[in-house]
Design a protein that fits this description.
This protein is of the alpha+beta class and 177 residues long. The protein is built from five helices and eleven strands; from the N terminus they run H-E-E-E-E-E-H-E-E-E-H-H-E-E-E-H. It has a single domain, classed as PK beta-barrel domain-like (M1 Pyruvate Kinase, Domain 3). Strand 3 and strand 4 form a beta hairpin.
């Protein structure tokens, strides 16, 4: 059994999946859904309007697929189109908040979480009164590009860590202690 909270936070054997890619071609323009994209070191997604500077902590943004139904419910809607949220990547099967202080791979790309991606005032315009507050806590994360390359919908999302335990082993340790 892990001895400390730091040890517990380092155990993240789950693998996620890239479900959606979105590019913003220009200010005020609708996002373009893509099946593949190229991510470059120092800037982010090729073809995206918001290309971060080399020292930027916001080169690529991600949002959790599992949060989309929650936000839709809070807005009293049946569903939410991820393009309306203005995030670059939608990922399922992996808790994005658990990526704090971690690097992870999406396809050929290595990203590093740099912080939370908070909603902006445009959410109020897009979703109406309460849109901003519905997204609080569900806005996703910002990342910096460590290694560039190609990504495609369906790619695995995997944590790069020296301390990973198989799910079965971690479960066994909890049930036999």
């Amino acid at each position: 059994m892990p001895a400390t909270l730091k040890d517990l936070m380092a155990i993240l054997p789950q693998q996620g999946r890239l479900d959606w890619i979105g590019l913003r071609p220009g200010r005020g323009e609708a996002m373009i859904e893509a099946n593949t994209a190229t991510i470059e070191i120092g800037s982010g997604l090729a073809g995206d309007r918001f290309r971060g500077r080399p020292d930027s902590k916001r080169q690529v943004t991600l949002i959790q697929a599992e949060h989309l139904p929650a936000v839709a419910s809070l807005l009293h809607r049946a569903s939410i189109d991820p393009a309306l949220l203005r995030r670059n990547l939608v990922v399922s099967g992996l808790n994005l908040l658990a990526l704090k202080d971690k690097r992870f791979r999406v396809g050929e790309v290595v990203l590093e979480m740099t912080g939370l991606c908070h909603p902006c005032s445009k959410m109020e315009t897009i979703f109406g009164a309460g849109g901003y507050n519905a997204l609080r806590g569900h806005g996703g994360i910002t990342t910096r590009v460590i290694q560039g390359g190609g990504i495609r919908v369906g790619d695995p999302v995997e944590v790069l860590s020296s301390h990973r335990a198989p799910v079965q082993t971690a479960f066994d340790d909890l049930t036999t202690g």
